[in-house]
Amino acid sequence: MTEIRLHNSRTRRKQPFAPLDAQDVRMYVCGPTVYDRAHLGNARPVVVFDVLYRLLRHVYGKKHVTYVRNFTDVDDKINARARMLQEGGDTRSLNEIIRALTDETIDWYHADMDALGALRPNHEPRATEFIVQMVAMIQGLIDKGHAYAAEGHVLFDVRSYPEYGKLSGRSVDDMIAGARVEVAPYKRDPMDFVLWKPSSVEEPGWDSPWGRGRPGWHIECSAMSHELLGPAFDIHGGGIDLQFPHHENEIAQSCCAHPDADFANFWLHNEMVQVEGKKMSKSLGNFFTVRDLLDELEKRMPKRVAGEVIRLVMIKSHYRQPMDWTEAAAKEAEATLRKWARATENVQSEKIDQRVIDALSDDLNVWGAITVLNELAANGDGSALLGSARFLGLLSEEVRAISQATEAYFDLQKLLILRAEARKEKNFARADLIRKRLDDFGIQLVDQSATVTAPKFEVFKIEEVIQSLPPEDKENLLGQEEYVVPRIFNNKAFSDRYQSFVARKVLGELE
RNA sequence: GGCGAGUUGGCGGAGUGGUUACGCAGCGGAUUGCAAAUCCGUGUACAGGAGUUCGAUUCUCCUACUCGCCUCCA
């Protein structure tokens, strides 16, 4: 069996991965707080751990891997967002708004992550559905002397857990010296963190032995991983920024609540996302949601390609290195996909190259795998290329289609035939005129051989053309439909109508 | 101040104690009515210093620089 080696943050080195139970390999990844569209930074761990999930499924079998990723749907950021909506005139109760907001955000998240080719985890628990388990775990911590109630809060006593700080390599005393912790009078130690806190009447809250309240941020992952994966499991993942305090606190809670188990065996952390070399932040104005980026890319390429472009840019950086989103990287990724699409034209079978598995098994060396794919493309081994690319979540049918040079384009096809004849007769004036006129309408012709020509659609230009058309032409083309330009590729009916419209017009001019 | 990661050719990005992946760009050529695409060829880089060694980009130490975390953050 392939040996997987992973960099374990816990030991700070690469180690051979051995599951606790090869029949049930278990992985938990910290998911998003659902109050807004997922941004690029949210997407990175999704894609990174998707690659790992695929690898585990390949090595241990699809039925022998359990992947859990949570939704944090109780959080002060959510409350704040809901209040904002309320102040903006929303008349529903805060709780109704919160429910609607989190539901909608989860739908968005699914749509966006699906677009990136990420497989859905086996379980996607919502924090609010595990309050009972959290309360039980908190009570257990109090009973064992690791937590205490004070003024409606329950706090974890960090001094009761000598290992606290081990994952992130810091000591409680050092951190206090840093003195950036909230000092609350009811805390025994400044580093003590909240397990439970009181809620106002308006805020979401649940009854508990400590009064009506809601859980602190960290306890949900401890409670849900325990419920779904057991007290000990194999891999716990998330962004490096979660290493402290979130994961440190999870470890403290879980290990104290279940002292006989070892909680997560391997800890994996992905590095952060940058944009054009700079940290992505709202203040720098380089903050993108996945949806923003997809919309932008979909202006110039089919939808599915846009998703794979983002995916490829994301996985080509090693997960423990900062990932830089640049326009150049997106272009390069697109070109790579086209190249592979061409190399797999007419390929029917798929097989996975073992060298791709071997590369990924070495701490997810995706670039090593891509090197293999490039080699397969160069050597013309289409089925290994297709199978291996698919394994990485790339080269879906829609993406392969971008390479296809010939396709029936109705009336447009007639025009292309006319032009091919003109070229054959060396009537280049006529051939170039056809190309020029189509270009005026945003349809670019690319000759691939003496007889094969591929049309490409320039969406911006088409938008301009449409805006400048007489009203009746416009209405004929658009019909009653709501026309959104970036979606031209997704609207076959419109696309066909437009091609026919242009082709007839140009044909008319030629006669 | 504390903790951590990193510094490889123009850019991105692997890897190795001695034979310099790969991709993009560039350059040269082929092909092409033109445009685009495609194909072939081409690149001796490993932050600086000291040490270990027959030999270090690869190991050790130091220095410099970059980045992240320490506060909500993926």
From TrEMBL:
UniProt motif 'KMSKS' region: location: 279-283
Keywords: Aminoacyl-tRNA synthetase, ATP-binding, Cytoplasm, Ligase, Metal-binding, Nucleotide-binding, Protein biosynthesis, Zinc
Alphabetical list of Pfam families matching this protein: tRNA-synt_1e
Domain Cysteinyl-tRNA synthetase class Ia DALR: start-end pairs: 355-403
Cofactor binding note from Swiss-Prot or TrEMBL: Binds 1 zinc ion per subunit.
SMART domains: DALR_2 (SM00840)
GO CC, alphabetical: cytosol
GO BP: cysteinyl-tRNA aminoacylation
Compartment(s) where it occurs, according to its Swiss-Prot or TrEMBL record: Cytoplasm
Sequence similarity: Belongs to the class-I aminoacyl-tRNA synthetase family.
The protein, known as: Cysteine--tRNA ligase
Species for this entry: Roseinatronobacter bogoriensis subsp. barguzinensis
